Amino acid sequence: MHTPSPERLRARHLGKSFPGVTALDDVAFTLRTGEIHALMGENGAGKSTLIKILTGVYRAEAGTIELEGRPFSPASPREAEAAGLSTVYQEVNLIPTLSIAENILLGRQPRRMGLVQWGAMRRQAARALERLGLELDVRRELRSISIALQQMVAIARALDVQARVLILDEPTSSLDEQECQALFTIMRRLRDQGLAMAFVTHFLDQVYDVSDRITVLRNGRLVGEFATDQLPRLELIGKMLGRDVSEFAPAPDAPPATGADAPPARIFLQARDLGRKGAVQSVDLSVRQGEVVGLAGLLGSGRTETARLLFGIDARDHGSLEVEGQPAAMRSPREAIRRGLAFCSEDRKTEGLAPNLSVRENLVLAMQAGRGALRRLPRAEQQQVADHYIQALHIKTPDAETPIRNLSGGNQQKVLLARWLAMQPRLIILDEPTRGIDVGAKAEIEKLVGSLRERGLSVLFISSELDEVLRVSQRVVVLRDRRKVGELEGELDEQRVLNLIARA
Amino acid sequence: MSGSTPNKTEPAARRDGGASVPAGRARDAAWRRVLWPLLSLGVLLLFNLFFAPGFFHLEIKDGHLYGTLVDILNQGSKTMLLAIGMTLVIASGGVDLSVGSIMAIAGAAAAILVTQAAWPFLLVVGVCLALCALIGAGNGALVALLGMQPIVATLILMVAGRGVAMLLTDGQIITFDRPAFVFLGNGHFLGVPFTATIVATVLALTTLLTRRTAVGLFLEATGDNETASRFCGVPTRAIKVLVYAFSGTCAGVAGLIAASNIKAADPSRVGEMMELDAIFAVVVGGTALTGGRFTLAGSVIGALLIQTLTTTMYNLGMPPAIAPVPKAVVVVLACLLQSDKLRSGLRIRRTRGGAA
């Protein structure tokens, strides 16, 4: 081993607590010059809190931070950025209605006598994008480009200030494989230039692909710091979960939907030639009772758009839809819910949570909506339902009255799942249910899907992680370019799916 | 609730999977929200105790209670009623600028029906309130069905409504002397002004209607995240139409009281700028303009605060023209007092978590 490069950021004995929760307890974190350092941990491990302290969103209650040997305790993200620490957040944090150039340079626009120099600004923005190997018309509105590109713009923005430290908080969660590789190329180049990078992700492959060292947190405490090439994958998972690796049970095997002897179950939902201009061209889909059907495809292949048509969020232009043999117009989510459907959206923040309402209120919302405004669910019953699911799904929360925004991402997701399970639906559509949550919670959710199926519930499972789709599904419908290109049953393996996607 | 162990003390630490049930924590939170407006009102009353002799003097004449405090209750009734309706609109994430104009329409319609048509008074009240509900529902339809910005949608009626009221009265001030109508805004009931009884009744009914049904939950969810609520099957559009209709109805009641106060319908003046007072009252009372959580009691206290301030300034002999200045100061102070950020910054209280 070569001698370690000098420390650029050094945090010691950090502590922070929230009402009822100790988020960080005596945590140390060191970033060296020219390294990519993965920060790993389960939900509630303290990753987000640590990052928010480093970026000046929160103040640490204990401990010290040094940036290049000088004390560093930013009071705001702006201050942190001025000191040379930039951040790219998990959820794109830009202004959708401004141009790409404005987003990259917002607050630092080149000016002469107080007036913005638009030409210089556009050139500077284009240069910033070039470093990422991107060519975009920087005059376009940010919202007119894909989420993946918006993420790249956010990275360009973070790099454009003279950053000494770059924090990447789950930058890859909405990028496809190719875009990830493009990002990693950039990250490696920046590393060689001496930038110190902290990288938070839930994709293990990416950690081993790109990182030099790994810091593992668990329940707000430091587990340890490791060189990536000396920490086998299984051991890393063990350290994150804090249990013996062998306990980490794989998801239940998904046997083929129909045994040779059993007659096929009845079809619950049948869609034919479903489509909507600009969203989905043509999708045929059927889900049987007690069957898990996976919806696979690359980013932008129309998975979410299909789910929205099925759940009545968007109206279809053509095609037919039947639920239990009955034609269904599906004009609204209300109708879909009445017909026994449930939909767990991929976008927790804008389509799932009522952030200021309590865990209990979020949990009973759909149930109450089903009963109507006048038949209020008695308070005691609400409490029972909430307590039941908090226990059944191991939701970590001080109590049911805590505002849901105080929970970690994985626990928020569990509350949203509970919201729908409490409805006792016949078919639940899970759109990226494991996005942005850690390995342990992922395994829990996969396990849950298996147990739902055993209880006769149908599941439509959407995920961009192919291995996950293959693990939980009995049948996989493959989409490409907004239309169905094939369907696999029986022996599911990645190669067959990839072949379908790649086939010209 | 089951036989687990609720209600011990504050849950000291997170316990995985376990969930204790501190009953009444939601109620505590509700109390915390009205605490600060209540405190502001207290400070203002305290000021009057020292600087306005006779402010707290009460006397009973002919079995009726008289005094400055009673006047505040009486004169503040219109703002309180508007604020109750406005609270629900603001909770839904909107705002209703048209309440002043709806007051004018209600007053004008009632005066005409009472004088020219000579209808029975209760029928007049019923018809006028139904009309106001309908007008409000029209606001709601613009917002919920056409997707118009609430401020624009209600601005239309704010400007046009007064014209409609003028049209009804032919530009005249219509006076009336129907005893029942005059009683509405000037009479006493159980020793206190009848208007106070009306406010208490409307407040109680609204609280029951929102908290004993699921309307309150739907409303807070809609204001907090409309998309998520719609995806849950919450009838967000119906809720929005409902709150604007309700706000219109409250404005109708306030309009009838305003007409009764002066025994005349004066469509050009009645309810002028009162929509702003109502919005002040709601915000000072602790309901955020961004929607979501709301407190009806807070808004009523906010309205009382504003009326107390107005009365205080009259007592001090301040010219009405400059009265808005101290009013603005108090509103800003009351809002600052509620700001968790400021309070924790001043270390008045220990911070209790991230963005609480």
Question: Can you walk me through this structure?
Answer:
The complex is a heterodimer of chains A (504) and B (356). Chain A has 504 residues and is of the alpha/beta class. Chain A folds into two domains: 7-247, P-loop containing nucleotide triphosphate hydrolases (Rossmann fold, 3-Layer(aba) Sandwich), CATH 3.40.50; 267-502, 3-Layer(aba) Sandwich (Rossmann fold), CATH 3.40.50. Chain A contains 17 helices and 22 strands. Chain A has helices at 47-54, 77-82, 100-105, 118-130, 147-160, 177-192, 204-210, 233-241, 303-310, 333-338, 348-351, 359-371, 379-392, 409-421, 439-454, 466-472, 494-502; strands spanning 7-18, 21-32, 35-40, 62-67, 70-71, 85-88, 111-112, 115-116, 165-169, 196-200, 213-218, 221-227, 267-276, 280-288, 292-296, 318-323, 326-327, 341-344, 427-431, 458-462, 475-480, 483-489. A six-stranded mixed beta sheet of chain A has the order 6-9-10-3-11-12, sandwiched between helices. A six-stranded mixed beta sheet of chain A has the order 18-19-20-15-21-22, with helices on both faces. In chain A, strand 21 and strand 22 (483-489) form a beta hairpin. Chain A is globular, with a radius of gyration of 24 Å. With 356 residues, chain B is mostly helical. Chain B is built from 15 helices and six strands. In chain B, helix 5 runs antiparallel to helix 11 (236-262). Chain B has one domain: ABC transporter involved in vitamin B12 uptake, BtuC, CATH 1.10.3470. Chain B is globular, with a radius of gyration of 22 Å. Chain B has helices at 25-51, 68-75, 77-91, 99-115, 121-144, 150-169, 179-186, 194-211, 215-224, 226-231, 236-262, 274-284, 296-315, 324-338, 340-345; strands at 58-61, 64-67, 174-175, 188-189, 192-193, 264-265. Helices cover 65% and strands 4% of the residues of chain B. The chains are: A alpha/beta (504), B mainly alpha (356). Chains A and B meet through helix 10, helix 12 and helix 13 of A and helix 1, helix 9 and helix 10 of B.
